[in-house]
Amino acid sequence: MASAKGAQFTSSLLFEKAFVDGKWVTAKSGKTFEVCNPSTGDVLGTVPDMDATDTRQAIEVAFKAFQQWRETTAKERCVILRRWSDLCVENKGELARLLVTEMGKPLQDAQGEVGYGTGFMEWFGEEARRAYGDIVPSPFKNKRILIMKQPIGVCGMITPWNFPNAMITRKACAAIAAGCTVVLKPAEDTPYSALALCKLAEQAGLPPGVLNVVTSSRSNAAAVGKELCENPIVKKISFTGSTNVGKILLQQSASTVKKVSLELGGNAPFIVFDSADVEAAVTGAMACKFRCSGQTCVCANRFLVQEGIYDRFVKRLAEVMNADLRIGDGMDPATTQGPLINKAAVEKVDGLVKDAVTKGAKVVLGGQIDAKGDNFYQPTLLTDITGGMRCFQEEIFGPVAACVKFKTEEEAVAIANATQYGLAGYFFSRDIGQIWRVAEKLEYGLVGANEGLMSTPEAPFGGWKESGLGREGGKYGLDEYLEVKYVCMGGI
């Protein structure tokens, strides 16, 4: 347990060691790295800077634990996940405060994330008992066709900083429920939420070696990822992050033909048709765009607004942004917009805005780094966006709404689909025929029709095209960690 250095933050769930084989451990090299509060810049503490050797040892531990964990019943796994869930509920305030301090999002958002993350424990604990196989009618009188599902084995996981609680539970709880064991590397910016979950898992009765967390700095991240992907003991890789890194991990995993789940970048369209309810569309836009200060992979990136409603939508969105968005430290109850994760993130967003302005975009609101601090960027509304601007082509990952005018439904769908990404898309319309047509034509794994927030443990989450492979959440999420076996029983 640690206390923050210079930040006056203490927590019974803040740990400065990695978690392997049910023990709190250091890196073999003895090296550590600092974790900072993105809002204040204060150092919260340090964690081990682990490398490929440390990761290899964790994989071997997980493989040994798998031999016993795979033999547990679905009910036994369900009970442990339920206890883990209950402990997270009991400690939700502490988990949320810890999350705010290392990641920066407002406390209310952090509380919502902890609830969301806990939901995966509940969901997959219950789904473990529904990993049904099949008896298939046989064309042969003396043979029976039996289909069973079995845990795939040791699973390597790499999780992002923007949802340091829920992205872990969405992956790890599915694997654990299926009977697999886990070696997980959390983002270097937000390791403490992962380690806090380990402590509560231990208290819930999860056996040593089933969940292992290795921490590493950016300098060791590539080596850790390579070990997870190329080690033949690991049978499954699950990664959430950038498309570029996902492609590298996919290439590395090919060496051992691993099963891979990738949840990668997006370039989400948010389409507002003339038939839309403007107030509902603006409400959806606010929830979709500015959650987590725009730092989610499913945030609206390109606002496509039909010409008949364009001016009214932009005017109303500007009014609501100006009235409802407040920049500040996440612990302040009035804050709705926390900091971006680090200086590099701010520089990227500022660069996208400046590129757009240089090429003719107009700034309706914001457009600058905020006086609150180096990591704060003003909620920004841009109009007159064109296809040649970087903010139209790239994932913004910040609080910038970029608006494009279109004429016809066909044009909107064509613009929306003209990207290599296919994670999330949104549209608002009150025309039922149009709703069906557009929902079917959008080339995205998640589509919100008159809805800006879609994520829930009960539904599958994942992208098309270069936005990823596989699904997390829902009944499909458990299948990612199960192998299908066909048994032909003869001599009947």
From TrEMBL:
Oligomer status and interactors: Homotetramer.
Signal sequence segment: none
Annotated Gene Ontology cellular component terms: mitochondrion
Known role: Catalyzes one step in the degradation of the inhibitory neurotransmitter gamma-aminobutyric acid (GABA).
Annotated compartments: Mitochondrion
First-listed, main subcellular location of the protein, grouped into a coarse class: mitochondrion
Domain of life: Eukaryota
Family of this protein: Belongs to the aldehyde dehydrogenase family.
Organism: Batillaria attramentaria
Record keyword NAD present: yes
Pathway this chain belongs to: Amino-acid degradation; 4-aminobutanoate degradation
Name listed for the protein in its UniProt record: Succinate-semialdehyde dehydrogenase
Keyword Transcription regulation: no
GO MF, one example: succinate-semialdehyde dehydrogenase (NAD+) activity
